[in-house]
Amino acid sequence: MNKRGSAESMxxxxxxxxxxxxxxxxxxxxxxxxxxxxxxxxxxxxxxxxYCGFDPTAPSLHLGHLVQLLxxxxxxxxxxxxxxxxxxxxxxxxxxxxxAERTLHSRATVAEWVDKLKSQLERYLSFxxxxxxxxxxxxxxxxxxxxxxxxxxxxxxYRVGTMVKKDAVSSRLASAEGISYTEFSYQILQGLDxxxxxxxxxxxxQTGGADQWGNLMSGTALIRRVEGKSVHAFGTPLxxxxxxxxxxxxxxxxxxxxxxxxxxxxxxxxxxxxxDSDVIARxxxxxxxSRPEIEEYEAAVATDAPDRAAQRRLAFEVxxxxxxxxxxxxxxxxxxxxxx
Length: 340
Ligand SMILES: N[C@@H](Cc1ccc(O)cc1)C(=O)O
What we know:
CATH topology of the largest domain: Rossmann fold
Strand content: 5-15%
CATH superfamily of the largest domain: HUPs
Bound molecules: tyrosine
Mean pLDDT: 93
């Protein structure tokens, strides 16, 4: 395991990208955003507070979350100040999926998962220096809120017509099952989080997956109405495999970041199996290798070099980032032994 703030978990330290926004664009990390020019200027200026939230829907984060974790890390390396939010309250409600209602887990289970996610989050952020990260739990401000205050003070800023247009909500409304009022309310809670973090910590940017766009806009709209301020958000693309299969699954199972749920060996193997047509995009998104380094791999892949150096580097970098050097070396040795 990496220790918080250890050299290993801080891969990429010390490199000053010319403009972190341009770097994020080059890495293919920006799918949707508020005004691009404004964001670019904001991120080129003095340190800003930004946040990204993670719901405790399982005892571990998975590969989809890794994109967010590393994006947070990139922004922190550029001098900005991260807030990692764990959804102790939103995890009790459930972000609507386009397909079907989520299972509601007990409060005790969710609280247990909150703790696990918090320690996972800590591994990707730095807790030193002026832009030290903070970890928060949205249960802190949601639990004390009464139903009456929620409806009168927050609900009044939301129009149902706008809420039903959100992607996941509209597809659920079109389904036979429909959507519970519980899940329908989710976007309000996420909006409230942004408002709270804006008020408490001066947070001006929320990041997330592009599928979170509705939830991100919920917050920017609420802050505009209540505080008269315009704040920012961007969404990273959903990662897809060029052959049309789902990324981040192995035999139908999610690839978890917890070593007990997915061994460093299987994790390493997963990355090693990356297709030539996907490997460069993965290096950009999942490693801290510089542009010239990645371009070298790009040239090598184009010549059909049989040694799969790009895949090996990718597997090495990501496994080291997630599981540390010792576990990575063990995984490599095992693969080497089994192929003899
Ligand atoms: N809705 C996010 C998690 C989240 C929760 C609360 C927030 O304030 C922000 C993000 C997701 O499902 O991935």
